[in-house]
User: Fold this.
Amino acid sequence: MVSEYQDQAVRLDYSARRRRLREKVFASSSRIRQTVDTVLVLGAPNLEYLTGFTGSFAWLVMRPESEHLLTSGVYATQIAEEVPDIPCERIPVGVEPTEPLCQLLQALGTRVLGVDMSQSYAFIRGLQRRLRKAGIQVRPTRIPIELLRIVKDAYEVARIRDAVAIADATFEHIQRLFQPEVVEWDIAMEIDFYLRRQGAYPAFETIVASGTRSALPHARPTERRLQRGDFVTVDFGARLQGYCSDITRTVVVGKASAEQKRVYYAVLEALERSIEAIRPGRRGKQIDAVARKVLQKHGLSDYFGHSLGHSLGLAVHDGRGFSPREKGALQVGMVLTVEPGVYIPGFGGVRIEQDVLVTETGCEVLSRSPIGLIETGG
Ligand code: ZN
Ligand code: ZN
Assistant:
């Protein structure tokens, strides 16, 4: 049965994903297996990926031969419907989740529980203190869910394509707003409204930054009114059926100055060269270096103060990406953003962001929104 909480045409085989994770964690050759006998999986995107549960809170306890879920009363009915194949304990109201977890682990005979290192120190310390009393050790562990999640299957790619298509339609919808006197905040509201109207959610807080504020890569929209000659950067994405898109475009209100054109075309060249360089086997840092080199050629690399891109999926930052330190190799089926930017204090900034799917021969650009320089408002 397809859950009413999911708008999916097919029921995915989540158990196959969990089987793959269990094989990685508990195979006799696995290093994790040598140190822990049970792992605790946390985090909404991980739970959704492994079980199909779309709520915001559940814990998954995995052992070589069994799986158990814990959730609050808020999600008890939903989880029973969405995840019929894993037994679930309901955490009573007012009870610390670690208490039923402790009882469950004792019943299962757990001695050492692996918790992913990405969890906060405070959380891991708290769990260690609570479980120590029951004779259970908690060990920070690298649980390789991220490695599974960064390579998308056909279903996931189709969902991301849908989310990108909505972002594209949204960008087209807001074209008329790139006019003098339009307020940044109103553009952001229109983006969010349009995304919601099409059944999606904003994948993250929408960025609209105009004039010299466009030199702030993560600017929040303000009450500032657009003026002729402004750069306007919009960065937004749709979350649809769990999956995210993330695109950025920078336009000029009115006619671009010679310096604006110079900066824009340098960023565009960095984007295009990096996209051309993507192929399976290349390392993330190699692609990042391509963009940096192009910007260096234009004397602008000092103004590119962030990584070139990030993996995209159930989360906006889904795992590895393109950064100077990323040694991981690209694989067919990864979906990543490519987003070079130049931010010049007192002048303004340009960022252009594409979402790409790594293919056998290179990559496919998913967004259809134009990337050439747009000058609006006459
Ligand atoms: Zn973005
Ligand atoms: Zn991004």
